[in-house]
Specification:
Helix content: 25-40%
Strand order of the largest sheet: 8-10-7-11-9-12-13
Number of strands: 28
Distance between the termini: 66 Å
CATH architecture of one domain: Alpha-Beta Complex
CATH topology of one domain: Phosphoribosyl-aminoimidazole Synthetase, Chain A, domain 2
Number of helices: 25
Strand content: 15-25%
CATH superfamily of one domain: PurM-like C-terminal domain
Amino acid sequence: MTIINDVKITDELIAAHGLKPDEYQRILDLIGREPTFTELGIFSAMWNEHCSYKSSKKWLRTLPTSGPRVIQGPGENAGVVDIDDGDCVVFKMESHNHPSYIEPYQGAATGVGGILRDVFTMGARPVASMNALRFGAPDHPKTRHLVAGVVAGIGGYGNSFGVPTVGGEVNFDARYNGNILVNAFAAGLAKLDGIFYSKAEGVGLPVVYLGAKTGRDGVGGATMASAEFDEKIEEKRPTVQVGDPFTEKCLLEACLELMASGAVIAIQDMGAAGLTCSAVEMGAKGDLGIRLDLDKVPVREERMSAYEMMLSESQERMLMVLRPEKEAQAEAIFRKWGLDFAVVGETTDDLRFRVLHRGEEVADLPIKELGDEAPEYDRPWVEPAKPAPLAADDIPQADIAEALLKMLGSADLSSRRWVWEQYDTLIQGNSLQIPGADAGVVRVEGHATKALAFSSDVTPRYCEADPYEGGKQAVAECWRNLTATGAEPLAATDNLNFGNPERPEIMGQFVMAVKGVGEACTTLGFPIVSGNVSLYNETNGKGILPTPTIGGVGLIPDWSKMVRTGFAAEGEAILLVGAPEGWGTHLGQSIYMRDIHGRLDGPPPPVDLEHEKRTGDFVRELIREGIATAVHDLSDGGLAVGLAEMAISSGIGAAANLPYACDPIPVLFGEDQGRYLVTVAASGAELRAIIERGAELGVSAPWIGSTGGGELRLPAAQPLAVTQLKAAHEGWFPRFMEGELPSAN
């Protein structure tokens, strides 16, 4: 059959598809002729950064991806981890950054929809979601609009679909003014013998289109996500998809029912690059060809071209290879749920990807090369220079009480209640801890005691100052937050957000951050089982802060032993578990230096991974033995902010001491890593025994004070009423969203 090509392929058209001249030459060499317009679109979709990872593959291979509990690592729609009793947790994190900046409501909503499909495509019912959001400076004219739209989009989709949002992050920095980050996480539960994969098997089997109809929304979305922004950003609005959570809920139920019927051989979500990517990936993984007839694809718009149909990113769609004898049963299930079901092609044995439209062949390409032979680059990179240490006597002073109140009421440390109260955090009835704690916790349905903990973490300012230590810290903090509930951290997913990898300094940030992430995951036994890389996050040459977000999952065997962040009772001892000498003194890159003194100098706090492991394991033992009554890991703001957060969460005050006669500023506001605040209902010999037990394990756990009263009493500071702390903490976000325009501080 003759290949039909009715569009002249020009240099301008090639560049508009995000293909470099040498990449286009590679296409010519591969197929031995000029591609059709549809084929050019297919190559641009499969070979862009978002789908092919062509700049990051080399470094992603260095990450630890296996472990005793890992069932499926990277390479599928989501990772799969064993949680005992024949159960598994399926999870992944993915970005929807560019679409959310262009059209915040639909960009964020379809980010949620896409990550949920990644999970239930594997056969899992979603049970939890999180989101990690980064916005520009609060006083930037677009920030409030973007916050409102993104939060509404996440809530509008997730609430309607019916999955609880149990955690996440929201941060502000001027470096995100022109390119916000929306990283969406979802987790689901499945049985170990009920996991479904995307590898097609068998020749001559029907390829079935499932779900919603195809429209023109999202055409070229994956290519758009692989390019920088410029002053023509508004022209990209049509590349943003439009979501329908109610259709997705029907799709979930129909897919799970279909999977239970035994009809499914392989199934793939139509996400980035839509029909193109899903069909190519299914065929290539199974060493099979795929033939598609676009005249059979359900559409909702007239006169759609083959190009538009192949590159549309319309939402709520799946592609499946079906057992032929089950076709009638499968169709009946989808019709019952009010969804489209259409046989649109078949598997072949020729390793070709053939596309027919209106009786003509518009694409005939080698399927393995489309998926496996995308360009792979070893980009030049330079290791970022490390900032000079702060001088030992460089400790700028401030009124401690005033500084603490200002930090608690700042853009980055204030309560996110305004955000998470727009999300349904309790739907499904299994949420044990909701946003505002160290980690979200959800009961495992059908089990009396088992629960899962979820956390998302990264500190971009640390990564900017030293991406290697920043990458380590992102993993370590996520691991600590899971541990702080009593969970055993099982595995992680990553969302690596960076600027233009063609700039050696940006590629250097990426490389060093990945090295840090890999070392931390290896030492902590916390493998990366899924993830996403988002590059070219910059506008007019100005990049974001390097932001390697880590999403983690932990297992709690008995949730009755779980602890919370808030003080549990009055009259309990407070231990600073993992305290270094001096209880912590590292002020470099701290919130105190940035928000109180306007300084962004010094190195970030170093991360001692062996210390992290010892300390976390000890804390987990105290929790599971019922000794610890409350636990909170220390991070932004240091000891003073950690104590204040525990007091705010519980309404109970506390009094803290200094270890010796010293300057209280670095002790209270230093951000040394590997530390937890732990309360115990013990005193005298019993308390000493706990401290000595830590010492035997190489973990310092000094007594630093006691809970009680209605005030937080810190050394060398005026006492602060817990109500005063809470008012400062809760006030910033509502005032900001009501129209006040505070500075970033």
